[in-house]
Design brief:
By secondary structure, the protein is α+β, with helices and mostly antiparallel strands. Among the domains are: about 55-195, no CATH class; about 350-430, no CATH class. Helix content is about 25%, strand content about 25%. Strands 1-2-11-12-5-6 form a 6-stranded mixed β-sheet. The protein is elongated.
Length: about 425
């Protein structure tokens, strides 16, 4: 497997990393012993994603054996990660209950556990001395010491440091990976390296590649969950791994040497079926969703569930559909199984928007007695959608966003989980004409 060299981008500002960080650049110094996480090239054939399961596949590099474990999910808030007892045999011969947690706690205490290349503090004293502002992941503080002397991870506080660092491990969302290494050849793994990614869409390519939050304004809602974000970041083409082009999705994560940016792995075909927070079927393969994976930096209409809901509403999904879509994934370093699905794009975005506009116009014409408020809201959405459709400079993300707004205007936002969470409030033309 090839190791990806971390990119030296000291002034890079990458935005709003919800599950995997916040909005400011990484500032924590790399303590002694930090390493850069390794990733691998894409497979020749697409394999079924298993974000709700975990996958182990061993690869040997020289005298070191490595494997990738994908973080799975039992529920929205509970992950299946490296501390699960199903992995106890990877760390040692003990099969007792809690053996995996004890083993991982020991690996952390030995200074052999990392997230994005930053060493997790082995002790509370090390946390205080080496990370006085807290241990951060993608610029977001994940582990810190409170004024009361407890250890805060997310919204929870722990009196015991070992419990806090185990909670830190469990905060890496589903669909990401941990790389385990056996460096002494004893058949057990004594080093853990987590990689916590956040997804982006590439906006433009000239002499630089631009990652952006697709900052599309909408009066009655926030288009994004993360609102403390820089909208655009320029990178030279040589700094981006995997050759992504405009409209592709990519991942970014902060390492001791700067931000690593890598192209997501694409799977293209027909969206046969999909259920938000459950799975998405492309052609004959179902791909599990990954709860709490960081999609803050992707415009809401390109996120998995929201894109699926809109396409299904306008009848553009299914095995007989002529519409092709691309679902983008995490590709782990040492496993052929794909990780988290990041979101959807489509080269047919203009045709999708045209179909949505035509269907909305037909529905408006078929209901001349619709309440004035409903008609006016739909007319306003149609006018904006038509402007974007007619503008030769419109990019696919803008057209996809208008499709999503037409879907919300017609169907309403009441049962769309992402729309409600982001603050959209559409009663729905369909509901108002009943």
């Amino acid at each position: 497997m090839k190791k990806i060299i971390a990119l030296l981008m000291s002034v890079l500002l990458i935005a709003g990393l919800a599950a995997c960080g916040q909005s400011t650049p990484a500032t924590q110094a790399a303590p002694e012993g930090s390493t850069d996480p390794a990733t691998g090239s894409a497979p020749e054939e697409t394999t079924e994603a298993a974000a709700a399961e975990t996958t182990v596949e061993e690869t040997t590099e020289g005298s070191v054996s490595r494997l990738s474990i994908l973080v799975g999910s039992y529920s929205m808030m509970e992950v299946k990660t490296v501390t699960d007892d199903s992995y106890a045999g990877l760390y040692g011969p003990s099969a007792e209950e809690g053996a995996a947690r004890s083993a991982v706690a020991g690996i952390i205490a030995a200074g052999n556990a990392f997230i994005n290349g930053f060493k997790i503090p082995a002790t509370a004293e090390e946390l205080a001395s080496e990370y006085p502002d807290g241990f951060t992941v993608n610029a977001s503080p994940w582990l810190s010491i409170t004024e009361n002397g407890t250890y805060k991870v997310d919204r929870d506080e722990y009196a015991d440091y070992d419990e806090a660092v185990l909670a830190l491990i469990s905060r890496v969302p589903a669909g990401n990976e941990f790389i385990l290494s056996d460096e002494d050849g004893d058949g057990f793994y004594e080093k853990i390296e987590g990689i916590c990614r956040a997804a982006f869409i590439i906006a433009e390519t000239y002499d630089v590649k631009t990652f952006f939050r697709a900052d599309i304004e909408e009066e009655n809602a926030r288009a994004f969950d993360g609102d403390l974000a820089v909208s655009r970041v320029g990178l030279t083409a040589s700094e981006v791994i995997g050759g992504p082009e405009a409209g592709d999705m990519a991942f970014a994560y902060a390492t001791p040497d700067g931000w690593v940016v890598e192209k997501a792995y694409p799977v293209t075909g027909k969206l046969v079926e999909g259920i938000d927070h459950e799975y998405y079927q492309i052609d004959d393969t179902k791909y599990d969703d990954a709860m709490r994976f960081s999609r803050d930096n992707i415009v809401i209409s390109n996120r998995c569930g929201e894109f699926t809901n809109a396409l299904k509403y306008f009848g553009l999904s299914g095995a007989d559909s002529d519409t092709e879509v691309t679902l983008w994934f995490v590709k782990p370093a040492y496993a052929d199984t794909l990780g988290a699905p990041a979101g959807f794009t489509s080269e047919d975005s203009k045709a999708i928007l045209e179909s949505a506009i035509n269907q909305a116009n037909d529905k408006l014409a078929a209901h001349p007695d619709a309440p004035e408020a409903a008609a006016q809201q739909l007319l306003a959405s149609l006018q904006k959608a038509q402007e974007v459709y007619d503008d030769a400079a419109s990019v696919p993300e803008q057209m996809t966003y208008q499709v999503y707004l037409l879907y919300l205007t017609l169907h309403g936002s009441g049962d769309d989980i992402g729309a409600k969470f982001a603050g959209y409030d559409y009663p729905g033309f369909d509901n108002m004409i009943q």
